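Long-time lurker. I teach an intro course on protein structure, and each term I like to show students one example going from raw sequence to a predicted 3D structure in token notation. This year I'd like something fresh instead of my usual example. Would anyone be willing to generate the tokens for the chain below so I can use it in lecture? Attribution to the forum is fine with me.
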Amino acid sequence: MEERPNVIRLSDRERNKKISMVSGVGVGANIMLSVIKATVGVWSGSAALISDAVNNLTDSASSLVTIIGTKLASKQPDEEHPFGHKRGEYLTSLVIGIIILVTGLQSLFHSAENIYYGTRPEFTTLTLGVIGFSILVKVFLSSYTIKVGKETCSGALVASGQDARNDIYLSIGTLISSLLYMFGHINVDAWMGVIISLFVTRVGVLVLMEISGKLLGERIPDSLAAGIYQKVNSAPFILGSYDLVLNNYGPGKYIGSINVELDKDTTVGEVYPLLHHLQDEIKRIYHVYIVFGFYAVHYEDSQSKAVVRALNAFKENHKECLNFHGVDIFRKNKCVYTDITLVHGCNREKLKQEAETLIEKTLPGYHAHITIDTEFSNSRFTKSKGRE
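-- Reply from a regular --
Happy to contribute to a lecture. Here you go:
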């Protein structure tokens, strides 16, 4: 799992150039389709075709916003923004979502008006030709945009491609309403306009929901967490790895930390070059800059084994406990230190007190100090080789 699929490693300059080029193609294609559909739609009085034209205009605006966002995100880090400007791409996706949502609602209002006033369209073979041509253009545009979006890890580009794919189905709906009216004299055009408008509105809501998760801070993908944990655990000098925390600073840019267990007898001079090499490997493979924190542990003595057995029993009896780690016994000041990872929403203080009481009963005369950790990434990938 040391390489994420479907991603082509490009320099920032190459990536931005590719995104801008694809977005430029999208702007041109959608403006062309919008002008053609709007002209024929106004001439024929088709609410569905006009809604489709407005949707294409929205797509061109989305592609234009993507270009602007890419330019913003490509700015180099500066004193006020030391982590760079790549989060600008998330703001781009936010704007795209708002544009799609507003357009869908406006088209919905227009179609509802046509239903109320009983507007009758006039479809011709020209109308059918325009819709058919639109479908062909969108098939190419959606496939190409999504492909490049995945290759460049551009959420905005993937969103634009998915929107273009949705347009294919919407155009098919417009085509069906045209055929029904021309050959069956059944007028469902305005109702088809409503369906198209609701579909566009739904896309806008989904885009906003997806990007809001990235802006608010969502848990990292399990595939990325599993790969990093696997790489760290493969190092023979590491006894366990926990608490992977990654902050997202834009598409494909993570900065974070991970805590590892090291043998207490290992010196800093011995472990520093090994950790530094591991840090470079993770950056090379996953494009993640990671900082190591560590616990100095020794699980071979009888007291440590007794505490581990007690905490294993605590974990088995409490589903809220995901793992424990970093057990360290300070005999000089009679203290036991350890971390426990608990699920969200449980009574953390109560469980902490219960675990501390258990440790103090296991080692009479010792005082327990427990730090409660939060599961920032999937804890099932953590591993403790030192206690196996």
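Some talking points for your students: Strands lie at 240-248, 254-263, 288-297, 321-330, 335-342, 367-374, 383-384. Residues 12-216 form a domain with the Alpha-lytic protease prodomain-like fold (CATH 1.20.1510.10).
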